């Protein structure tokens, strides 16, 4: 099994173009099933989760291939087959096929979705919405089957108990071809949901309110062929910003957009770093940063993203004093703390809070990635630490990062896969 090797204690400096968004690509790929025709996605990242979703779509009868810089999906021959467990149990976004299959065929069967071991993440909210649309769910030990007796989802008015990203996306997918109007309240507002709505509207859907907490979807009879260029990955951008800030570096990230990372940019500015947004790029100069004690709380967008919690934890190890990080989204997202302790970090976990005492004199050693974002954060820790760090479990990182070694090396890091 491959590992990532890093020699640290070198500031990151240079320029880099950020890859396409993982969290936008997967719902758009699921949405392609709604249309019995062709979808072309530009800037779609070459990551394991996209490969896994591609394999599922092929199993459902779609044609999926790369052509130049685009991912091409032809769902003309898609069928309402059960989603194969050997792929679906590997990653969470497989659940998004529920809304697409229900919308197109009135039936969906899939195993319980898998992914990173960061929490239980039940799908109750998804099922509540689908019931209101007329679906009759049957759950068993192996998975879930939903059937709409009338063959097509019905428009409804529903409020999510919590602004779940996945439940919002699934509800949108189920409502696009529904009979009548669907009004969804207390929706998640993440940029990737706005991206999904924009993509579907260009395909012929009628969705109003994108970017807000209330979405109104007027069902249409059919969609059309389309081409779409994906947004850049704000979590990848945030990861590299925090790695650069932790090493007191200076980087320019092309394709990154500050408005999707405002809580992070505000933290870095408050610590004395220069963060400038120039068009679709972020320019960071953290050479004069002096981070101190801080409280960070993860929240739904536009709050601080849970997907950057592990990375901010590593950055705060370079701060003076005791900082607190509160995780409100997932109950098992501090797995990285034990690995960082091997490197000399002083982190104490108290229920859903981590107390980080710094500055820590991190030393390189052998550590293990146990999930996607924690693995990327360990790479950032290796860059900050003195000596050599070896990270096993690099497959987790590849779920969301095209080539983290390539990217960080482009910024001057001494890093490679071995």
Explain this structure.
- Helix content is 31%, strand content 25%.
- It is an alpha+beta fold and 418 residues long.
- It has two domains: 4-19 and 233-417, Enolpyruvate transferase domain (UDP-n-acetylglucosamine1-carboxyvinyl-transferase, Chain); 22-220, UDP-n-acetylglucosamine1-carboxyvinyl-transferase, Chain.
- It has a four-stranded mixed sheet with strand order 21-22-1-23. A four-stranded mixed sheet has the order 2-14-16-15, with helices on one face. The chain has a four-stranded mixed sheet with strand order 4-5-3-13.
- Strand 21 (366-368), helix 12 and strand 22 form a beta-alpha-beta unit.
- It starts with a strand and ends with a strand.
Biggest sheet: strands, sense, closure? 4 strands, mixed
Which architecture of the largest domain would the CATH scheme give at its second level?
Alpha-beta prism
- The number of distinct β-strands equals 23
Instruction: List the total number of helices.
Output: 14
Share of helix, binned? 25-40%
| CATH C-level category of the largest domain | Alpha Beta
Classification by helices and strands: alpha+beta
Please state roughly what percent of the residues sit in beta strands, choosing from under 5%, 5-15%, 15-25%, 25-35%, 35-45% or over 45%. Answer: 15-25%
Overall pLDDT score = 95
- CATH topology of the largest domain, which one? UDP-n-acetylglucosamine1-carboxyvinyl-transferase, Chain
For the termini, the CA-CA separation is: 9 Å
Low-confidence stretches: 115-120
Count of discrete structural domains: 2
Strand order of the largest sheet: 21-22-1-23
CATH H-level superfamily title of the largest domain: Enolpyruvate transferase domain
Rg from Cα: 21 Å
What is the molecular shape? elongated
């Amino acid at each position: 099994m491959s590992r990532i090797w890093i020699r640290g204690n070198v500031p990151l400096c240079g320029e880099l173009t950020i890859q396409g968004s993982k969290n936008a690509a997967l719902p758009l790929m699921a949405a392609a099933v709604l249309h019995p025709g062709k979808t072309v996605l530009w800037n779609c990242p070459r990551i394991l989760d996209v490969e896994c979703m591609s394999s599922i779509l092929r199993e459902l009868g779609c044609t999926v291939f790369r052509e130049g810089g685009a991912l091409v999906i032809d769902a003309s021959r898609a069928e309402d087959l059960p989603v194969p467990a050997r792929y679906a149990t590997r990653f969470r976004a497989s659940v998004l096929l529920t809304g697409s299959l229900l919308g197109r065929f009135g039936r969906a069967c899939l195993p319980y979705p898998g992914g990173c071991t960061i929490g239980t993440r039940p799908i109750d909210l998804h099922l509540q919405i689908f019931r209101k649309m007329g679906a009759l769910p049957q759950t068993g030990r192996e998975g879930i089957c939903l059937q709409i007796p009338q063959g097509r989802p019905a428009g409804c008015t529903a409020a999510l108990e919590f602004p779940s990203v996945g439940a919002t996306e699934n509800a949108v997918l189920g409502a696009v071809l529904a009979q009548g109007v669907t009004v969804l309240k207390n929706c998640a507002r993440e940029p990737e949901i706005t991206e999904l709505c924009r993509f579907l509207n260009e395909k012929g859907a009628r969705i109003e309110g994108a970017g807000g907490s209330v979405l109104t979807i007027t069902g249409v009879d059919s969609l059309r062929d389309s081409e779409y260029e994906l947004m850049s990955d704000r979590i990848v951008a945030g990861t590299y910003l925090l790695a650069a800030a932790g090493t007191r570096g200076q980087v320019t990230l092309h394709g990154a957009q500050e408005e999707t990372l405002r809580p992070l940019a505000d933290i870095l500015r408050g610590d004395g770093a220069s963060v400038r947004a120039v068009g679709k790029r972020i320019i960071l100069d953290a050479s004069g940063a002096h981070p101190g004690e801080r409280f960070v709380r993860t929240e739904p967008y536009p709050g601080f993203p849970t997907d950057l919690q592990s990375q901010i934890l590593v950055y705060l190890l370079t701060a003076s004093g005791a900082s607190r990080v509160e995780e409100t989204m997932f109950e098992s997202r501090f797995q990285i703390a034990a690995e960082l302790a091997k490197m000399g970090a002083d982190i104490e976990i108290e229920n859903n809070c981590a107390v980080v005492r710094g500055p820590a004199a991190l030393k390189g050693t052998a550590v293990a990635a146990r999930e996607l974002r924690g693995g990327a954060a360990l790479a950032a820790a290796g860059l900050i630490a003195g000596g050599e760090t070896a990270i096993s479990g690099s497959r987790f990182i590849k779920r969301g990062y095209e080539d983290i070694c390539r990217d960080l090396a482009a910024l001057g890091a001494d890093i490679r896969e071995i």
